[in-house]
Amino acid sequence: MLARALRKPVPDTEPAGASMPEPAAGPKRCGFVAIVGKPNVGKSTLLNALVGQKISITSRKAQTTRHRITGVRTVGATQFVFVDTPGFQTRHGNALNRSLNKAVLGAVSDVDVIVFVVEAGHFNLADAKVLALLPAGIPVILVANKLDMVHRRGELAPWLRSMQERHPFAEYVPMSAKNAKDIQRFYAIVEKYLPEQDWMYDPDELTDRSERFMAAEMVREKLFRLTGDELPYTSTVVIDRFEEEGKLRRIAATIVVERESHKGMVIGEKGEKLKRIGTEARQELEKLWDGKVFLELWVKVRSGWADDEARVRSFGYE
Ligand SMILES: Nc1nc2c(ncn2[C@@H]2O[C@H](COP(=O)(O)OP(=O)(O)OP(=O)(O)O)[C@@H](O)[C@H]2O)c(=O)[nH]1
Question: Which residues does the annotated region (G5) include (predicted)?
Answer without folding.
Answer: 175-177
